[in-house]
Amino acid sequence: MAIAESEPEPIKSISPVKIAEPFNSLSSPLILGHFDAAQSKAPPVFHTSEVSMINAVFLDLSGVIYQGKTVLPGACDAVVQLRRAGLFLRFLTNTTRATKQAVLENLQSMGLECDICEVFTPAQAACAWLRHNKRTPYLLVHPDLKEEFQDCSVSNQYAVVVGDAGHAFSYDELNKAFRVLLQGADFLALAENRNFKDSDGCLSLDAGPFIHALEFATRRSATLLGKPSRSFFEAALDGAGCGLDQAVMVGDDAESDVSGALHSGLGYALLVRTGKYRPNDELAFSPPPTDVVDDISTAASWILDHHK
Ligand SMILES: [Mg+2]
Q: Which residue has the higher pLDDT, 272 or 307?
């Protein structure tokens, strides 16, 4: 089945912008509460004493397990410790520049014990959405991700799927997607992260700024499929035998991994001081992290202390 990356049907006329109807299978996009640190000196209210039980652990990848092509110190041992404790373990990434299989192989090449069923990516959630809603994807994604969508539905109804396309975010490609959206195609965002720590050590633009540009231009809201969508966390928790309130997210993104996870119903979220973390990130969003820890090793120790 061909990947829907070619141009859509010619646009004969551009009708007035229509606000998208709510999607029937996924929750609305999240709007996170932004905490103005400049206006409040109050530290985040940690509530570690209130932690009662943790049975499921969601680990972010980039900035937590690895940075670039290098596994972070203690990451492999931390995963082993969490497994030995009998915790339900899943790897949740908003990375949209690689297929799920490539993500798995990258983890395994770093010495991490991991199974394909333990890895959750936004593209996986998007494929499930497309199949369920019988839509053909119109892809504005990284070239390395396109093969992930080769088995998706084909119909005369499109859904524009936007991820971190990297250099494919040209004016022409964005404008094509814009015009497809104007024709009434559904609008899916694989992730809305603002930035990521690039291979040169500096922050680079992630998918979020480009998705928001399309939202601004079309006056529509994309349906978010990756973190911190509640449906993404719920799918990852399948088989855990517990609710989101007994799950902890470990991440380096104070907005998406931490505040967003808590907003979506996770019981706990730990912010690590690795990856894209910057001082005072924990003050920037509400709700604040359950706790801030140095790295994945201290996160594992924290979790094991609270696992019954
Ligand atoms: Mg990360």
A: 272
Question: Residue 216 is which amino acid?
Answer: F
Q: What is the pLDDT of residues 45-83, one digit of tens each?
A: 455 545 678 999 999 999 999 998 899 999 999 999 999
Beta strands 195-197 and 203-205, pairing class: antiparallel
Q: Do domains 49-94+227-305 and 126-224 have the same CATH topology?
A: yes
Pick the CATH number of 49-94+227-305 from 3.20.20.70, 3.30.430.20, 2.40.420.20, 3.40.50.1000: 3.40.50.1000
Distance from residue 289's CA to the centre of ligand 1 (Å): 15
Ligand 1 centroid to residue 272 C-alpha, Å: 9
Name the CATH architecture for the domain at 126-224. Answer: 3-Layer(aba) Sandwich (3.40)
Q: Could you tell me the distance, in angstroms and rounded to a whole number, from the CA of residue 92 to the centre of ligand 1?
A: 9
* CA–centroid distance, residue 60 to ligand 1 (Å): 5
Q: Read off the pLDDT of residues 39-54 as tens digits, 9 standing for 90 and up.
A: 333 444 455 545 678 9
> Average pLDDT of 141-153?
92
Which residue reads 């199949």 in tokens? 131
Distance 293 CA to ligand 1 centre (A): 14
At residue 198, the pLDDT reads: 87
> Taking 70 as the threshold, does the pLDDT of residue 123 lie above it?
yes
| Cβ-contact 61, 103 below 8 angstroms | yes
- Ligand 1 centroid from CA 67, angstroms: 9
| 205 bridge partner residues | 195
Neighbours of 221 (CB within 10 A): 17
Running DSSP on this structure, what letter comes out for residue 97?
Answer: S
CA of 148 to the centre of ligand 1 (A): 21
Instruction: Kindly indicate the confidence band of residue 13, based on its pLDDT and cuts at 50, 70 and 90.
Output: very low
Q: How far is ligand 1, taken at its centre, from the CA of residue 192, in Å?
A: 13
Task: Calculate the CA 144 to chain-centre distance.
Answer: 17
